[in-house]
Design goal:
alpha+beta, 4-stranded antiparallel sheet, about 50% helix, elongated
Length: about 425
Amino acid sequence: MKRWMSALLAALLLALCVGCGNQAEEPSGIYYDITGIAPTETVMTVDGNEIPAQMYFYWTAYNCSYLEYQLGMLAAYGMSGDLVNVEDGSVNWDAPFSEDQTLSQYVKEETKSAVTFYAVAENLAAELGVTLTEEDETAIADNRASMVEELGGEDAYAQYLDELGVDEETFTRLQSASLLIGDMTDLTLQEGSELYLPEEGYDQYATYADHILLATQDTATGAALSEEEIAEKRQTAEDLLSQLQASDDVVTLFGQLADEYSEDPGRAENPDGYIYTPGTMVAVFEDAAVALEPGQVSGIVESDYGYHIILRRDLSEGLANDPDTKRALAQQHLQGLLEERMAEAEVTVSEKLNTLDPGAFYTQYVAELEAMRAPADEAAGEDGADAGAAGDASGDTAGETETSGNTETSGNTETSGEAEAGSGNGGESSGQ
């Protein structure tokens, strides 16, 4: 659950659209053809928030697509085991993913979690009176127009939604939930709001520390230095520590000594140190840093990289100069609040989903997509590859997501597209 949650939290950059399509009188659509469940039928409720079948199946297809891509990457390096069929590269959805779950069962759990997460976010926004801003609405309208143009017109855009299996109302709802999360993140940064995270609250999510590294290995190759060289590095570390302990201005001297002596390859990009979340640096570094008060210097800390002298810095000062990282941490705080609400939410699931096999569903979904695209490809003849590529591009746009906080990355797929992740933290160093 952590993978998609942090991977989808920051902003669901589905190609934005606006407005609502008319509902057909008779059930139809790619998901209806596969499951027999009407697209607008409620299949889940989360604290009373109703989830239509088309939204649930969208997330099923998305999670299958994401997992398929990840397994394909592993298979390319011979690391997928029995999860991917050697003969044709297809996913073995009935293969065990854990001791008590098949891949298909895992996807079902992930889908329920994803749907619950965004429903909880919608509920919290409603409670707080958070609605789409004028800027949100403008972005939605502008991006819909851009998407229609890129796809080649309204008909192509309508076909794109048909392939996704959602009407425009649901497509807009998917995007709006992400925008509302962004707006609630703004509130965590706004003093006096119900979600405000005070400055001291950021310490639970990150640490700000600088260090002087005297490397005991070649920083380019990782090869260990000789015993004599290592002994020299130890002596240098002791000399620097003595200077710091005798100084009346430790912080200023530390910066000067670090600039002159530190062998951290990342120092040029991080001259004042690193703002990092737990698990980013090696354990001995993190343990030593968190035991310090801001402005304090550690003793000599030894890791596999060498000898460190660590200065803990004031996180609030660091974040004041790094608003992007501060926002990422505020978003992490909001994520935690939403996770708590997920755990307490009253969730009901339609009995019609009891027999749903996500792997079999996804396999049929891909086959249906190919059938939908076949006439256009045949008509295009030799240009059919271009038509297929255009279809793939629309699919990529639909499933594109951007996250911050964790560092999971998915690639492109035809059906549910691309998941892209980046860390909002300060980078890693040889002191990690």
